[in-house]
Amino acid sequence: MKTDSWTSFLRPIALTLIFIAVDLSSSDASEVEKPELPTSPVERLQSLLETSGRLENAEIQIQVEDHIAHLQGWVPTLDEAEFIAESAIRIDEIFGVVQALEIRGSLADAAARAETALRESPALDAKHLEVDVNPEGHAILKGTISCLDEADIARELVSRVEGIRSIETQLEVDPLLLRSESAIVAQLLLDYGDDPIFSRYGIVPQLHDGILTLEGSVASHDEKDFLMLGSLVTGVMECRMEQVEVRPALARAGISEREYQTSDILKVFELVNAADPRLEDATIVAGFVGSRLSIDAEVPSLSARNACLANAHALPGVNGIDARIHITHDAPALSSNN
After folding, report:
1. What are the residue boundaries of the BON domain, all occurrences included (predicted)?
2. I want to staple 2 with a disulfide (CB 3.0 to 4.6 A). Which of 27, 57, 168, 204 is the partner?
3. How many domains does the chain have?
4. Which of these ranges, 31-35, 258-262, 281-285, has the smallest mean pLDDT?
5. Which residues constitute the domain of residue 115?
6. 20 with 86, same domain?
7. Mean pLDDT of all residues belonging to the chain
């Protein structure tokens, strides 16, 4: 087994990252030890994160073993932790992620900051929403939304608030509430900006009478297909891609969007949870309803619940999570759209 380890101190303007990475990918033990190549999965992940423009002060420890990335260290926000995990999934040799990054941001006025983030976003009408945050940084989203897309938008916005460590959504869907086309465009821009690959391309969406037109460039026809599928959100009836150019020069070696069957995703989730020591005593059953992951679980603690959801949010091909998780030690079942 080949083991490479290194520590890199990165200090661009307004960005300080410490990477400690270990690559334990399978190889012939008889091979002569060689210097780490630029094509190693940990180095490619480091490069992807360095150039993302998304991370502030953080310390990230990366280990890749049997195609599973183990992420440890700390970041200021839950959103940054999830972005790192989503970036890892784009590395070709990495199939799943054990996401164990600690959130260390300040909790001062977190509920007020979260509600401000919701109100100021053009992607949803937040007048029916409120946020409670307990002293442990667990946020509960309450209120009424027009569709499940808005639950995912609200969760994404709250995850960007410094100090919030986990999120539970207790939201009711009122189909009589309407969304504007400008809100849908803002949702798509939020989605593209949160994607480790598409965030680099400057995709421009325009929506009129339910018909979405996209402009910009992608690296491959596969990426173009993924972009179209990801753009078919609630309120979009047709997606026109004629003005999206395929430019192979944009491709980054060993980094790509990949198509997963639901059976593959569920198998990856099973392998990741089995590799996560925080879930040793957990019972987790998962399935799909459409493109949303459904989870029924019994776990020993709130930290185990958060571990289960963190690993789920790192899965590829999942558009939202519906979870019912029972904490067996002195806590009620928690049911939410995450």
Report:
1. 106-175
2. 27
3. 4
4. 31-35
5. 110-173
6. yes
7. 86
